[in-house]
């Protein structure tokens, strides 16, 4: 059995603010329900998941079965929300960390991801094939990268060993800060690494080793064909996609 943490603290001050007045992205309604509801529902229906913590707005308190779900305040950043969530989660079981903006996620996709996580790593992260997403819906716009193994996009789930969170979170925050400064990021990663990435010669194993080394953890990329894991909602066009595919 594992636990789960849903990050629902992001303020609605980006592109989605044009189509919804809700103060938090997690509360944006999809067919009459807050977007985060669909994520929580899928986790509740996943047999491997035990306790669920939602780090987000107080409006979510009381929405879910209290014997399974606890709502805590979200932070002003993703890192703060992670810290708030893990503060109340047990540290003796692996934890599935999910964003709140993947309403197309299904229990079957969660189970498939968990099934493909081999033992022995600290963090597992799905990478979803571009072709799998486009086979389902060619209108989806995602940021893709081409590695030796194929063209992929990052997923929106992490399976995490809670014991490494405290040591890795500060280093992860530094990487997040540098994401908008390619020059500084390249200095951190190494010019040779960046050149291999730009020339599409970088392998997933090299990526795992580099990022894992920087964070002081053992990370594992898990290849996936899951539409719901690969498609998040962070702009109006994504909202339209979600509405089309929600049953």
Summarize the entry for a quick read.
The protein is of the alpha/beta class and 247 residues long.
Task: Give an overview in words.
The protein is an alpha/beta fold. It is 37% helix and 21% strand. The protein is built from ten helices and eleven strands. The longest helix is centred in the last third of the chain and has 14 residues, at 165-178. The model has no long low-confidence stretch (mean pLDDT 92).
Summarize the helix and strand pattern as letters. Answer: EEEHEEHEHEHEEEHHHHEHH
β content, as a range?
Answer: 15-25%
Query: For the report, how would you describe the main beta sheet?
Result: 9 strands, mixed
Structural class estimated from helices and strands: alpha/beta
Number of strands: 11
Percent of residues in helical segments?
A: 25-40%
Span between termini: 28 Å
Residue stretches low in confidence (pLDDT < 50, at least 5 long) are none
* Overall form: globular
Q: How many distinct helices?
A: 10
**What's the rounded overall pLDDT mean?**
92
Give descriptors for this structure.
single chain; 247 residues; two-stranded antiparallel sheet; globular; alpha/beta
Layout of strands and helices, then pairs:
Blueprint: E1 2-7, E2 29-30, E3 33-34, H1 35-44, E4 49-56, E5 69-73, H2 78-86, E6 95-99, H3 107-115, E7 123-129, H4 130-136, E8 145-147, E9 150-154, E10 157-160, H5 165-178, H6 182-189, H7 191-198, H8 204-215, E11 219-224, H9 227-230, H10 236-245
Parallel strand pairs: 1-4, 1-6, 4-5, 7-11
Antiparallel strand pairs: 2-3, 6-10, 7-9, 7-10, 8-9
